[in-house]
Amino acid sequence: MAKIQTPQPVRGTQDIFGEDQERFQHVIETFERVRRLYGFKGVEMPVFEPTAVFARSLGETTDVVSKEMYSFEDRGGDSLTLRPEFTAGICRAFLSNGWQQHVPLKLAAHGPLFRYERPQKGRYRQFHQLDAEIIGAGEAAADVELLCFADQLLKELGIDDGVTLQLNTLGDAESRDAWREALVEHFQAHKAELSEDSQDRLERNPLRILDSKERQDRSIADAAPDIDAYLSTEAKEFFAQVTEGLDACGVAWVRNSRLVRGLDYYRHTAFEFVTDRLGAQGTVLAGGRYDGLMESLGGPHTPAVGWAAGIERLGMLLDEPVVAGPDAIFIPLGDGCEAAAMKLMGELRRSGITCDMAYKGNMKKRMQKANAAGAAHVVIIGENELANGVAAVKNLATGDQREIVLGGLAEALTA
Ligand code: ATP
Ligand code: MG
Predict the structure, then answer these.
(1) Quick one: which ligand is closest to 58's CA?
(2) Cβ distance 140 to 191 under 8 Å?
(3) Could you tell me if residue 196 is inside a domain?
(4) Closest atom of ligand 1 relative to the 283 alpha carbon
């Protein structure tokens, strides 16, 4: 019989298991807790959308739309795209469902996203994001609150050390257009020295040359004009309100006048939380204000601001271990003891005590399993113990072993 080949995973996908999964889950649980503190409502979004949702809002010239989307025709002939980001889909949902009545609407989502990229550490084709949006708020206070949320999240994850909030303004449409013109003029003068990619960007998306990672582009990008000289009075005032708000809340930030966001719809505030620990994949959380997006989807003018963070990248920064072992591992020894242990564990689990059973192998093997699981106690139930209505409880940290009446187990295991 021909040997059947084992299927390979799709390039750039991950099977997240063990400690990686614990880290992943810890990031999500922390996000869910902190977003409630800030009054963000959860939202569950479709994984695919009509292709136009992304093509129109992100802009045809962006890397995501031009090179990275997973688009396909479904059996009915409609062009669909696996979501490469949350924001555009959330805005589509806002318009489809008439969520205008809820503004300002604070939403939080998390889940998988898909981009056809070159896979490497911290960069995948299916990756996962946390996402936070405030829709229908044009005030700088919304930017400040959103950044406070991000800052607290990173602090609660314990990964704020070595992470810097870089902040920039892209001005309003008028400021941005004037700046763009000055940038094109500057880059045009140095066109021959630019990398091939950046020469291409000069036509399509000149702002992106500013944050090019190509070495030959750096000195030209660094010498390019800042937006400051082109900011309208309103845009300047808005940025001042954001920075003053952050200072008042004790959120540290630095100005990075080279910071632009990859997507066309950004206005005013743009920001990234960047770590020095993940090499080229150092941006862990990024976002900004996107006042023009709803209109690009045919909706009414609706100012909004949001961010997204890579769950895998946050997970990689966490200190280990992120989860404690179980409160107890049960070791049943003898006839009827397994069933008795299972019943006892059920009672304990119902009162919030984490436990598991080691039922395979000799005593030594089972003790090894308990130690490897990081259990706080082992509970040994043999036929004699069972007959006397007791169990032997060993504290694995101290080595101390005591006989406990079964009714007192919950107390003994949480003491
Ligand atoms: P990068 O410059 O790293 O490509 P980006 O500007 O494309 O990032 P955003 O669209 O702003 O990223 O997404 C927000 C966050 O999502 C990023 O800061 C990063 O943490 C994460 N992220 C983006 N693309 C990937 C990917 N392919 N794999 C893993 N995480 C990603
Ligand atoms: Mg990218």
Answers:
(1) 1
(2) no
(3) no
(4) 18
Q: Is residue 217 situated within a structural domain? A: no
Ligand closest to 150 (CA) is 1
**Ligand 1 centroid vs 58 CA: distance in angstroms?**
14
Give the mutation target among 69, 120, 127, 289 for probing the ligand 1 site: most ligand atoms within 8 A of CB. 127
User: Does residue 284's CB lie within 6 angstroms of at least one atom of ligand 1?
Assistant: yes
Q: Per residue in 107-141, pLDDT tens?
A: 999 999 999 999 999 999 999 999 999 999 999 99
Hey, whose CA ends up nearest to atom 13 of ligand 1? 308
The predicted model gives 204-213 an average pLDDT of 88
Is the entire prediction scored with pTM above 0.85?
yes
Give nearest CA residue, ligand 1 atom 10: 85
Domain-terminating residue out of 289, 317, 345: 317
Q: For ligand 1, is residue 245 a contact (CB within 6 Å)?
A: no
Could you tell me if 76 and 23 lie in one domain? Answer: yes
Domain span holding position 79: 19-172+232-317
